[in-house]
Amino acid sequence: MPPTIALKIDVDTYVGTRDGVPRLLEILDRFGIKATFYFSLGPDNSGKAIRRIFTRKGFLRKMLRTRAPSVYGLRTLMYGVLLPPPIIGMKAPAVMRQAAARGHEVGIHCWDHVKWHDLLPWIPKKMVALELGRASALFEEVIGRRAKTTAAPGWTISPDSLEIQDAMYLTFCSDSRGRAPFYPVMDGRSFTTLQIPTTLPTMDELLGEGAITAANINDHYLSLLTPGLNVHTIHAELEGGVLATVFVDLLERLRAQEARFVTLGEVAEEIRRGSAPRCELAMGELPGRAGNVAIQGRQLD
Questions:
Q1: In 181-220, at which residue ranges do the beta strands (DSSP E only) sit?
Q2: pTM, two decimal places
Q3: What is the dihedral sign for C-alpha 60, 233, 91, 169?
Q4: What is the distance of C-alpha 234 from the center of its chain?
Q5: β-pairing, 293-299 with 278-284?
Q6: Contact (CB, 8 A) for 182 and 278
Q7: Rounded distance, CA 132 to CA 161, Å?
Q8: If you average pLDDT over every residue of the chain, what do you get?
Q9: Among residues 35, 34, 3, which one has the least CA distance to residue 224?
Q10: What is the pLDDT of residue 60?
């Protein structure tokens, strides 16, 4: 049976929005594929991520093996430290509108990507609500309608963030890593917003690990595909930048396998016609990633 692929596109930075998204839109148009884009809307504070060298085991090694300066550019790595951070949704609204106009699904990644990713466990609930509220307001101003979906930066969540997402009446979220759609239970608390987890590792997790290179990474991806739903998260800064040709090769090979492409919204619609289980959700480690991510656990019903 040909695989089903949902492409989830995280847009973390201003340069990823300005340069990476238009390149990805061109590639996706070429293949006739619709994807789900998640946009960061607030300040690009990428330079502040340098503190992860001291707070996240393996971060420096990851930066070196993925050649981060060439991926993001030196200017991006100075935003929020030596250069004032651009407000992404105000600097590049036309790009967001273009993605929606071309028929892609668009949602909220965050307000401040680095702040959420690095500090969420210590942010009071009211501030978490403010972060999502700011992003929601600017999203609605740019797109002309409220957001129906969000995806947490770095797959970083808390019971408070899940509670706030429930209050936003979202159709679904994609905040986690796992195996299949589910309703989350975290720290004994049940939540009502459907989670559609990323099922495949990302390029930055794989490149430089073992014998995996840009030349053979797609062989590895094809070996990981399952007969059911495969959710593949890509990044505008990588697959829309220096690794664009590698991404094109992957799409060509998936087309040769007659893969079916769907948006996450289409997955959610299929779930609404059926059912999804409740599963535990907790922060934990994944190979190739510095720091913890939200991981789908055991099924509860």
A1: 183-186, 189-190
A2: 0.93
A3: negative
A4: 7
A5: antiparallel
A6: yes
A7: 9
A8: 91
A9: 3
A10: 41
